[in-house]
Amino acid sequence: MQFHALSEHPEWMPLLAQWYFDTWGCHVPGHTLADEQQRLEVFLQADELPLLLVAVDNDVPVGAAQLKFHERTERPERLHWLGGVYVAPSHRGTGLAATLIDALVVRGTPLGVRDLYLQTEVDDGGLYARLGWQPLESTRHASGVPVRIMWRPLVTDAG
Ligand SMILES: CC(C)(COP(=O)(O)OP(=O)(O)OC[C@H]1O[C@@H](n2cnc3c(N)ncnc32)[C@H](O)[C@@H]1OP(=O)(O)O)[C@@H](O)C(=O)NCCC(=O)NCCS
């Protein structure tokens, strides 16, 4: 398995947009596949945040995860968020999401990420709880779906 930033492979944008649209975007009234692809353009700058990392198996993208700013805005001090975690159905259940998140964290730390937040529809935190994320408040996504906010401090090289 290899990991590449989307900025290195903009040709993967249509496939990723389709994943995100089919998983989440199609449930948002008025949101189109073209909108989904346009939202990915912020990830095309190299070596800076926001960052979208793609897992690649035999030259084929099989997963993705994003490290981005302010996925939720009600607490501005919560700057960096993990989002868009997606693994292709053919590759689920083998730990790829966990590996992908680790690879994203490794790249995010030198870019200044110290605390990461996420929101998940799985109230007990699912795989994130297993990976050391701590539960914060329960709230709702903009779509109305209940979500759990979670937090994970990243290990720094300071100590
Ligand atoms: C969630 C997803 C990324 C997991 O990918 P994966 O490579 O199979 O993950 P892993 O093998 O590392 O871990 C599987 C675990 O994820 C858990 N999981 C499934 N959906 C989850 C979710 N939405 N939030 C947290 N954990 C989830 C499973 O229960 C499983 O837990 P277990 O190992 O304790 O049984 C994948 O199922 C997927 O892409 N789903 C559609 C998109 C999605 O819901 N993304 C999560 C957004 S928070």
Task: Map the helices and strands.
Blueprint: E1 2-5, H1 13-23, H2 33-39, E2 51-57, E3 60-69, E4 80-87, H3 96-108, E5 115-120, H4 126-130, E6 134-140, E7 146-153
Antiparallel strand pairs: 1-2, 2-3, 3-4, 5-7, 6-7
Bound molecules: coenzyme A (COA).
How is this structure best described in words?
- The chain is of the alpha+beta class and 159 residues long.
- The protein has one domain: Aminopeptidase.
- The protein contains 4 helices and 7 strands.
- The protein has helices spanning 13-23, 33-39, 96-108, 126-130, and strands spanning 2-5, 51-57, 60-69, 80-87, 115-120, 134-140, 146-153.
- It has a 4-stranded antiparallel beta sheet with strand order 1-2-3-4, sandwiched between helices.
- α1 packs across α2 (33-39).
- The model has no long low-confidence stretch (mean pLDDT 94).
- Bound molecules: coenzyme A (COA).
- Residues 23, 85-87, 92-98, 120-122, 126-128, 130 line the site of coenzyme A.
- The CATH class designation is Alpha Beta
**Percent range for β-strand residues:** 25-35%
Structural class: alpha+beta
Within the CATH hierarchy, at the fold level, what is the topology? Aminopeptidase
From the coordinates shown, what is the CATH architecture? 3-Layer(aba) Sandwich
Number of strands: 7
**Helicity range of the residues?**
10-25%
Tally of discrete structural domains: 1
Q: What shape does the CA trace take? A: globular
At the fourth level of CATH, the homologous superfamily is Gcn5-related N-acetyltransferase (GNAT)
